[in-house]
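Bug report (template v2)

What were you trying to do?
Predict the complex of my protein with beta-D-glucopyranose.

What happened?
Run completed; filing so the output is reviewed.

Input:
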Amino acid sequence: MKKQLFYLLLAAGVLSACGPAAPQLGKDSVEDVIGAMTLEEKAHLVIGTGMVGTSGDSTVIGTTKKLVPGAAGTTYPIPRLGIPAIVLADGPAGLRIDPIREGDSATYYCTHFPIGTLLASTWNQDLVEEVGKSIGNEVLEYGADVLLAPALNIHRNPLCGRNFEYYSEDPLVSGKIAAAYVRGIQSNGVGTSIKHFAVNNQETNRNANDARITPRALREIYLKGFEIAVKESAPWTVMSSYNHINGTYASENTDLLSTLLRDEWNFEGMVVTDWFGGKDAVAQMIAGNDMLQPGRANQYDMIIEGVKSGKLDESILNRNVKRVLELILQTPHFKEYKYSNKPDLKAHAAVTRQSATEGMVLLKNNNETLPFERKVRNIALFGCTSYDFIAGGTGSGNVNRAYTVSLLDGLKNAGYQIDEALKADYEQYIEAENKKNTPDSSQPFSRFMPVPRPTELIPTTKVLSEQVAKADVALVTLGRTSGEFVDRNVSDFELSEEELQLLKSVSQAFHAAGKKVVVVLNIGGVIETASWKKLPDAILLAWQAGQEGGNSVTDVLSGKVSPSGKLTMTFPNKLMDVASSTNFPMDARANTDVRNKEDKSSSVKNVDYTDYEEDIFVGYRYFDSFGKQVSYPFGYGLSYTTFEYVNPSVKVDNGIYSVSIDVKNVGKFAGKEVVQLYVSAPNRFQMNKPEKELKAFTKTKELRPGETVTATLKLNTTDLASYDEASSSWVVDAGNYKFLIGTSSKDIKAVLDVDVVSVVEKTNDILKPQETVNTIKR
Ligand code: BGC
């Protein structure tokens, strides 16, 4: 209390007469400000203000709540030096803050935009940048400074509970989409935090799991996306992940946070921990993890004690303080931006509605079942999810939105007729099921966790025959939800018996009457499709499309927009076909901290540690190289129209390859096309390289029927490099490379021969495993 009064008087200038005025951030140099700081102030500044007053200073309890309720954290204010608190808030699909405030009749809802996976499935960097602009505007206008997004961990296995927040199994797609998102957000003068750096590919025991992995897989797969994002978009901050990498916590890892991130990639921003991540605050400071969030008293004590005992050199603390101050200097709070608390939610609803349509992937469309156009007016709407649509995943990636447009509402808004009796049956059933499926309050973070979905309702023969008589088409939605803290179970990947039964009976009844069946997948991660995809006539992978989801899906079904999304990951035939499945915690007890202990004598594989034995063979790199069939390949997605590819050519100038091809819309609908450039290296078997790798992609503008555009894709010679562990270098092997231009990883339209000369780039010899990882080889 006394301290508070002291600061108040100082801030008011009442005490300034007692001595020379203290340097002020922004007016005086950062060095002078640091010079005027006490050790205690420095220690406070590098840890957050605490979630429940745990930061080591009771005077800052509730800072976050006071500034922006529901934000994830704030930095420590030091008014006497002109240092304000700044606000950090989640997360990828929109800003996550509390929508309702005590004693305040106003509301603070944010727009729930599509999940990360959907945004990536657009393969449209301009569109993602536009979405980022809108999200960033809400960050600014609701008084936050840094958005804790984007999340770009690799989709290593379909069961990771947070894949919906992430982009792809491929690092190029992840990095390019993340960079576009960062540019969009930061164009508002607010910051981002690219996360979770790095190798946070499972939720099971995420706070302690040790990812045992080779430097090659790290560099080529798990770090590459972050490298692209850092170099192409200069994010204000990077968030270190919870897990260990080769025996050291990411947040305590100097190799990762300093040698790689700063020395090799020239990152100039600030590094923040994931919330409560890591153990040893001194090691974190030394590693270059500048700020610890949300802040704990023992971290404060460790830092003070560390400096006093000499374990932590004060110059290192000063270095980190400097980075925190440099971040603060850029923020709206520092610039005293007068935020409105009134972003244009209507305009953003239109942005989310449009952007969501572009990331939907048409998986199947026999005999032009879609679009409905004028063929369809009455729809038999099945599946609980049709009526209870899923906007996004749970946990910190969720958004407190004002509404979700269900598929029912979306279809009705567009003038389709839905049978009221069937609707009433479903609504009654869902209400009863939801009463049974309450969150498991024995779990520490239950309110952030996914609630089980209703078991699917199987229509009776009577209901089915009534619907067949009345409707022009049947539409069945299958839903999945997942989120932070827990990985998905195998049963979540598979269809349940009830879901299969529903699909079978609806398909049988409608097909018998010559009517068609469409499946909509309202999911956040990959599910099994191989066993049932023959049943319906069309399958639209709608992902979780944000708060306007039902409208967006309807825009695609109706034909208002032709789908142009492509898969950023493979849909395997079976879960165990995925190379990482032998080293993933299948159905493990899913509590983050359950095994967060030092005693490794009883280590449990895939819980305490995970061996990345599939190495660089993630996703299509594995399926292609090891000749495995898949259900839907990486890069795949149909359109309502058809494109022809002609006149491929390649030019090289100063180590930059320009690949061009003419793309012509030869179908009946307007549409956009994603052009994908894969490269197949020489001596792939001897060098243990994947069959092919994506090296560039672009998306055309919307092409009218008959219209042609030239797509140009660029890459550098160094983009062709593989990581050689023996010499710790990026090496481009000389030889004849095949440049493959495709519309998916399996549908190659043109092949170009390119002779390449060798290039070698030396790196630091870092991030090595302590035990040998038995990696698979071609
Ligand atoms: C999540 C982060 C998030 C942070 C703050 C953590 O549990 O892993 O992604 O930004 O919480 O909410």
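What did the reviewer find?
Residues 9-14, 590-595 have pLDDT under 50 and may be disordered. The first strand starts at residue 73 and ends at 74.
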